[in-house]
Design goal:
Largest sheet: 2 strands, antiparallel
Order of helices and strands: EHEEHEHHHHEEH
Helix content: 40-55%
Structural class: alpha+beta
Number of helices: 7
Strand order of the largest sheet: 1-4
Number of strands: 6
Shape: extended
Length: 194
């Protein structure tokens, strides 16, 4: 892979799964049905890879449909490891769902926004914060025996405030319900045990 002056060796391992093929073929059928409606003028032409525009004529790209159907169920895994075994590569890729699950939760439940960095230092700092947050969330899940999604949902509605007036600090907060108390007590117990 790469330009001729900087070629990098890669190994691709292909895997076929019948369940994946079934889902892919259903998706192709849905896209073809939408493409047919778009060609008949019954629906707007949106991003549909099977709609082929030639001049002002809309047709279904049957060659692409046939190629896509022929590849249904196949997935390629690329690695730069030297002499990898298929079991090792497939196993490593299949473990990625845990990481992807964590980041899906983070983006939706924490209402995170995409962040774009251009400098190496900013990228490193951002990744450090993300990985620290991921480590803390996994620790919280193990400590409380509760998913991070449930922890966020439970604690989100609780607020506390400290107001300083002169030399006095006044504290106020939303009372914790039983679920929130259980989470806080589990964290306190784990923190004092260490």
């Amino acid at each position: 892979m790469g330009p001729k002056t900087d070629q990098r060796r890669r190994t691709i391992i292909y895997q076929y799964r019948q369940g994946r093929a079934k889902r892919t073929l259903q998706g192709i059928d849905t896209q073809i049905a939408k493409a047919e409606k778009a060609i008949k003028g019954q629906a707007a032409v949106k991003r549909n890879r099977f709609v082929q525009l030639t001049g002002g004529t809309k047709t279904i790209n049957r060659d692409l449909e046939a190629k896509t159907r022929a590849l249904a169920g196949l997935k390629g895994y690329v690695t730069n490891l030297h002499a990898p075994t298929p079991d090792y590569v497939l196993g490593a890729y299949h473990q990625l769902w845990k990481i992807e699950k964590s980041f899906r939760m983070s983006k939706s439940d924490l209402r995170a926004r995409p962040i774009y960095h251009h400098k190496r230092e900013s990228i490193d700092a951002h990744l450090t914060i993300v990985m620290a947050a991921l480590a803390v969330s996994h620790w919280l899940e193990r400590t409380t025996d509760t998913s991070i999604k449930k922890i966020v949902q439970t604690l989100r509605r609780h607020r506390s405030i400290a107001v300083q007036t002169g030399d006095h600090i006044l504290h106020a907060g939303t009372p914790l319900d039983d679920d929130a108390k259980a989470i806080v007590n589990a964290v306190k117990a784990a923190a004092t045990a260490h």
